[in-house]
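Tutorial, part two.
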Amino acid sequence: MHNHGLGSWMATRRLKSPDKPALIFGDGDVLTYRQVADAADRIAGLLAARGIQKGDAVAYLGENSPEFLQVMFGAAQLGAVFVPVNTRLAPPEITHVLTDSNARALIHDAEFAGRVADGVEAGRIAHVLLTGDGADGIPGLNRLTAQARAGHIDATVTLDDPAAIVYTSGTTGKSKGAVLSHGNLTWCAMNCIVDYDVVSTDVALLISPLFHVASLGMGALPVILKGATIVLEKGFDAGRALELIERHRVTMLSGVPTTYQLMADHPNWADADISSLQKLTCGGSAVPTRILNAFEERGLSFSQGYGMTETSPGATSLSPTMTRQKQGSVGLPHFFTDVRIADERGRMVPRGTVGEIEISGPNVFLGYHGLPEATASSFTDDGWFRSGDLGYLDEDGYLYIADRLKDMIISGGENIYPAEIENLISDIKGISGVAVIGVPDERWGEVPWAVVTLREGAEVTTESVRTQLDGVLARYKLPKNVVAVEELPRTASGKVRKADLRARFGRR
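Running the prediction step on this input gives:
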């Protein structure tokens, strides 16, 4: 075997557990590891016949489906670089991903044809393929792969080679492509297997979009590496999730606080048979006490954690046994990962002192695609990744998040960077100044609010701002409220004091 990356996984699983259910989807359809491996082989052959080779980027825009994973593993066989595209992005955002990644091929669900047209025209994309049966007389992967060559393609791939480019929300108006190597994703999966006790008999309900690195890197890949089973859903519905847990005897579930809140608030919660559940993981933000209580009453506790796209994404995890004792903490570093805290001059600080969180380990990304300066500035001289987040380690080495240097908003598990929204709002007629902040929300954890100053005589409403941004930004990034103030609080150097705005509006 020349391929030491993800491209070898399915061939090995076909050898070790050919008849084991790999994916359960839809109304109960099942694909074994042999079937998924065979499909990945045919997709690799299909892409190879169209000239896709090692280093070429293959973009995928589609809802959760077996094809998502089959395309990823098929591309990995060739040493091609997989680019998952967020289905919630607006057309200009999709265009940026397709052009910035230099994608040579795009595979997408038919429903997104209108959103990708500009990106296909502007980019280097030579091949556009549809998932499923296709549409409008254009054949989809189902027919094309049936005609493709069978057999495994074994390209030479090392753990240091790029496996995926996953786009982060833009801190400066444009999203950056984090390049994750085969080793990054493999070691992240190993961290999860060790720290979350993933075993081959697990059945994992996967309800979060696979284009999110958390769902892919910490949800699907560890389960596949262990040869366990994934119940793959296109989206999340609390009632259906409860029903699937009972039907398939689900043992593992990952989500964000909103996921668990909606389940606990569902009318069927009290009567649902969730006795098979053993492992709950939660990321994005701390689990509210009310939700902890609701699940603890059913005999369940959470593993919580901290991470980011650049760490593939896990950096720390808090075991269920420490949920109460270390409430508010995001846990200890993952088994193969290290965390330290540095001051503004890069010096290590004592336990209990707030500073910038720095991360090291084989799960830390290679850098930002096509952005050498941004990559260099993200690492210390001795190779640790500078997270941009503030936190501290307690006397036992548990990490606590204090604040976000980058002012990132996490809304329902989606990362939102204010600068991207501010750049667009500032161009709206009548607005003279803008600051976007995260405001607590019972359902989504946080939602973006825009605090603006207006030119004399101007009138701006929440609806007018949202209307002008709709179609340019993903809808989850649209400000939930637009508040006009006489002036924005600023530092002596002119920077907006967002902490003051959060203190003023964040209590609502």
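The longest strand covers residues 431-441. In part three we will examine how such features are distributed along the chain.
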